[in-house]
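Why does residue order matter? Because the sequence determines the fold. Keep that principle in mind as you read this record.
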Amino acid sequence: MRRSQNQDSFNVMLAHTPEQWAKRGHFFMVADGMGAHAAGELASKLAVDNIPHLYSKYAGPSPPEGLRRAIIEANTEIHTRGQANADFHQMGTTTSCLVLLPQGALIGHVGDSRIYRLRGDVLHQLTFDHSLVWELRAMNQLEGDAHNVPKNVITRSLGPNPDVQVDIEGPLPVEEGDVYLLCSDGLTGPVEDPDLAAILSCMTPDDAAKTLVHLANLRGGPDNITVVVARVSSAELATSNSKAEPLSIGRRDAPPTPPALWVVPIVCMLVALVMFLAGQTPLAVGLSVVGVAALGYIGYQQLQGAKGTQLSAHRRLGAGPYVEVPVPDMGSLARISEIIDSLRARATQIGWELSWAEVDRHCQAAKADPSTAAHHYAQAFACLMVELRAFLARQASDSAVEL
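Structure:
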């Protein structure tokens, strides 16, 4: 059974100028709403409408702090709307935001939607699931079989409470060829990490996104499914090629120096000049040293107020990656072929009356030409999904009763 409303939302905001790239980078996000009736849909829409806008507004001085502030303010907006209308009371949404900057990848995260990164032959989960299962495991309180713990219980989301704790990760180094996947739990429920790795490693972002959604649906995904896939295709986006200043947090405008504090160096310098002209050189030197020291102290106070804490690959926020999964040893294409075979067996077992002619044609073409195999397999999943929808439509029509 699927929800009658699509409670998932997403947003992509690319930087179109060098100034935008340097200030706020490329922004991607998904949100998975929850709540009765249309409440979840509203919550996720408020998140994807507000967070990118607020992040652009606050990112300038410090993107990590701007991202956190944007998510917190979006939580306030969702909570306020929920409190104002009984139909939307306790509505909420997850949110997972990815920002690619010259300094690296930043992540802002609340809930159990996920962000993955495929680098080479390893898939990394960069976000921590705010779910009961993950929280118990983190506290070493998950005893016995984890399957006995409800997987759909989340411990953190935007909206239900006036305050929310936001996970910020990064900056994580970005390399040419990295593939990022943002998705709701409608994907990660029916599709396991090794299958994600196989599909992401050999397909284009467009084919991969469509295939993942098709596969989740073919496996009976019980939830809305939202997927965003992005590939770093240019060496110019790699962190190693960036000359940008490091990101910083805790940076504040230095407080104005009290006028009285300037009196010390000014008086010392003036008296030192008078003493020097009067032939009192030792005294003049001593007063000059005091004046210079006073100026140095003022400068140090100003610098400390503006510096903050610089972030880098060696000093970053968060503890990710939280899961690492290798691409299947059998190879990505072989794994995808195996997935299609398993779907065929499952369809026969449960009585799906599907035509496999187009699916078989694409599978044969994939095996005949490795250079186009990934695209043909993507088309095979698309054909299979078309067949399934047609079969379900026939089933619904056959069961209809006319009076």
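Residues 255-310 form one domain.
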